[in-house]
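PROTOCOL LOG
Step 1. Enter all chains and additional molecules of the complex.
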Amino acid sequence: MRTLGTIGDAIRLDWRRILITGGLFALIFQVLMLVALMVRFQALPNYAVGYNWIGNVIHIIKSTPSWSDIPPIINQEWLIEIGKMNYDYGTGISEWSLNVVPVRMAVLFVLGALVALCGSFLRRDSCSVTTGTTLRATTGIGTILVAMTNATMSWVVCCAAPSWVVGLAMLGLGVSTSLALETMGPALNLAGFGLLLATVFFLAWRKTRDVKSIDGVLRHA
Amino acid sequence: MLMKLNLKSALLAATLIPLGAMAHAEKISIAVGHQSMCTDTYTAGIIIKELGLLEKHLPTDGEYADAEYDISWADYSSGGPITNQMLANKLNFGVMGDYPLIVNGAKFQETDSLRTVYVAGTGYNLKGSGNGIVVPVDSDIYSIDQLKGKEVSTPVGSAAWGMLLKAMQDNNIPSDEYVLKNQSPAVGAANIAAGKIDAHSDFCPWSEIMEFRGTGRKIYDGSETGVPYLHGVVVRQDFAEEYPEVVQAFIKAVYEAGEWIRADPMTAVTEMESWTGVEKEVLYLYFSEGGHLTLEPSIKTEWIDALKFNHGVLVAEKAIPPLDFDEWITEDYLKVAYAELGVDYEADKAKMVDPAVANKGLPSQIWHPRDGVSSYGTLPEFLKSVADMQATGTNLNSTYVYDVETGLKLFGKTAFWVKAGDDYATFLRKGEAETFAAANAGNLVTFAEAVAEFSTDS
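Step 2. Run joint prediction.
Step 3. Record the structure below.
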């Protein structure tokens, strides 16, 4: 309970930094994905489409009778699609694209905020260099897992809709292997968040313990 | 469940009543997802759209007397995104091939509250033609067994992918003996043209586009799997239940689109070329008499069997959810639509066109750029006319012959020709042409060599 209080105190103290980091993280991640696509395919995007995300979400809520069906459908809704269209055949086929998906942006925002919170604790933590490095590495691994599984790129070689495995395929992993890993996405995503939350709790617990320890010394002085 | 709905209704009422009040009470939005680069969907897609056939058949009396229709069409390059858009209720109707149809039905049945119904077919080939495996035109690969150790691409999840898996299984080529790549039709076709891939498996009409453009050569036709290749129409069940007459109108439009093609295939494919960008000569291979496609919206028992077979493939390969076919497939709308059109549904359902039987004796054809399509009862007459027309400097649009083995319509220039005595025979595959030549003391010749035999210059 005291640990949760410590986390609450840290958020209150640093909320601006946490919010800004979360927002910037989500935005910069979109830019990085687009740059990665352009570099990988050596081409600039030649089309962009904006979608009425709010209108679409309202429409989905109105027309889907069961609450449980709504989240997975909204999860697929795009805000912006930007990519390269091949017009050699018929009316054109999108070869690759970045799809800005608000639900995924929200996840990335939470990720950025958690990283900022970890950073906030680490800055004030007086742990040994080895422990500090381990904690930073854990935060980094958690961040990579969550960020990787929330990539929203599509590439015709991989898929007709955005998928996180496109990132793996672009890095050179075989398409078949990448597709085989696709179902592991939610588990990896949870593992990433699990690591980050564990790091936050560990750092908060240490901080709480340190405070208690200082209290103890004063009582026996 | 009731409480959940009540809570949801209350929330929606609070937030959405102002928006709902803005809508006209009698406005019926009809959104159709179709594929202008998939020939077998045209009778439920681009033709209805361009000819305004849905508008023609939509009900305008009774409950619909004050209805105001808002029809929208969205064009996709595959069926997958259509299903996603239908889930989001941005599309009411979806037109797609057999494998995506199954995914559509299964994905909807996976939800608690949403369903689609499969209400009509659009076109079929009894043996599976339309799908095909193509190699670069200069490749030394002539049969599927030569694909061992090669890279083969296909749009994964499509009918062509299912056909490729079955073809490989039928020919005892396990999946670890070839490299499967997932590629869209356009990229696959571009890679075949550039010789960047050993083979590409695709759906209609991509194999023929590659053959017509002279970049690819078909080594395997979907008909060899013996599994029917079909396309169809799915509708969100909530829409179908609310507006059954609209679904019936849509089916009437599908039927009329087929009639429009049958009435004048040459004009129809010329129009379709302007709408889709697919060459009319390629489309003629599908939509003319003896073409790959039979246009009957009726749902035949064989189709249900084929769809069940395809579902088994998808379950094994992609772990898709189960599909209750009895719940999903309905002929109710078809029967009403046929009755209102004055057409015997059961007779239409009983029809079954097998190209090997139906195309026997059909004439070969030449498409002249000025004079249109002419037909010839024998191959020597056909070759003589090609030679005469070419002698005038005419660049023919295309020529069409039939495969002796399967009855499939082929481009004259891509067929394997056998000359045996004074007669000729045409084949889809080189192996069968060689067997025929050996059995009939004949020899393989190219199309150009066969034509040259009849040239006055020779």
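Step 4. Note key features.
The mean pLDDT of chain B is 90.
Chain B touches chain A at residues 4-5, 8, 12, 15-16, 19, 36-37, 75, 77-78, 80-81, 84, 87-90, 111-114, 155-157, 179-187, 189-190, 209, 238, 276-278, 319 (CB under 8 Å).
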